[in-house]
Amino acid sequence: MPAFRPLWGLLTRRDDPAQTASELYGRLVTQARTPALYADLGVPDTPDGRLELVVLHVVLALRRIGRDPQAAELARALTETFVTDMDDNLREMGVSDIAVARKVKKAAAALFDRSRDYGRALDAADAALLAELVGNHVLPAPAPAGHADAIAHYMLASEIQLAAATIADILAGQVRFPDLTT
């Protein structure tokens, strides 16, 4: 029987929210690194600019996941994955242990704040408010004309596209975002 134990484990394996969250987070980070966001829409290719785009995509995913009660564990795991990634990246960048905790707390607070603020604008489908928020958080001041609007419309289109995905799609990591080619 021991020779069959690994196979039995594969056949009876329960889904691991942490593993699913890690795979989903990887896809969100890949989307946040889409070159058009930086080259065409003016997001600064800096640690802060990349953080803001990761937060933006995690917020969009959490909103979709939050609409399905059976995915509450995945939402928690995705948030934990974000925090762990922030910790890992800061340590990799050589930030001291003392500063890491403070900066991770700041990143987690940014996720909470953006969830609230972007959520309010997305709930109202308010492109103008979203553009204002993007201008405040994502783009450097002064933001190039039209870039905040373009990112706001991308967020609204993403919200619609993610809403159309089933929870099975999300759990399988099949998240799709609108095309950003200009």
Topology:
Elements: H1 5-12, H2 17-32, H3 35-39, H4 47-66, H5 72-92, H6 97-123, H7 127-137, H8 147-164, H9 167-171
Question: What would you say about this model in short?
Answer:
With 182 residues, the chain is an all-alpha fold. The protein has nine helices and no strands. The model is unreliable at 4-14 (pLDDT under 50).
General description of the model:
There is one protein chain. This protein is about 70% helix and about 0% strand. The chain has about 180 residues and is mainly alpha-helical. It has one domain (about 15-170). Helix 2 (about 15-30) crosses helix 4. The chain is globular and about 45 Å long.
Mean pLDDT comes to: 89
Number of strands: 0
- Rg for CA atoms: 18 Å
Structural class: mainly alpha
Poorly predicted runs are 4-14
- Percent of residues in beta strands: under 5%
Give the overall form: globular
Helix content: over 70%
Q: What's the end-to-end separation, in Å?
A: 58 Å
Oligomer: single chain
Helix run count: 9
Number of structurally distinct domains: 1
Pattern of helices and strands: HHHHHHHHH
The description of the largest β-sheet is: none
Kindly list the characteristics that best describe this protein.
182 residues, mainly alpha, globular
